[in-house]
Amino acid sequence: MTTSQTAPAAVKILVAGGFGVGKTTLVGAVSEVAPLRTEEYLTKASVGVDDLAGIGQKDTTTVALDFGRITVSPELVVYLFGTPGQERFWFMWNDLVNGALGGVVIADTRRLDTSFASIDFFESRDIPFVVAINCFHGHNTRTAEEIRAALDLDPHVPLLIGDVRLRPFGRDVLLALVDHLMSLPAAVG
Description:
globular, 7 strands, single chain, alpha/beta, Rossmann fold, P-loop_NTPase, GTP-binding, nucleotide-binding, 5 helices, 29% strand, ATP-binding
């Protein structure tokens, strides 16, 4: 007697945001496997190209993507694709987004403007997303209402505030995305 084993259903989630906001960190915090990272060291050649203001001691950057996996059950696997944050790599987002069910925009309150492009990207493609405010070392000087207004977020877009280094916060972000996706009207087609 042979049994046929079917492959689990795959769900793709895109993790986006500005340069140095914590995308690689979030993927690494929640992935069940060692994430695939395409990081390279920042060099003198990036001076004047990459804005390091407000980033501190960052010495590497994602140049293609980050990839992680979460097995929810034998029938369901979630694949996380982290985007590169610098504008010179944004062309890759169009390929990375193919097949994505939803997205996570990571933002840093010290540099909220670096998140505008990610929010516009998802909104222009009608891809549901949540916003995760990464509080570096617990530092956040703005309320959720102030952040929502500064980002011009629609009221239905979930906004979470926490530390992306912490696995429970990463889990909460992904669960908020699932809840958000389930609350949307089913597509007719």
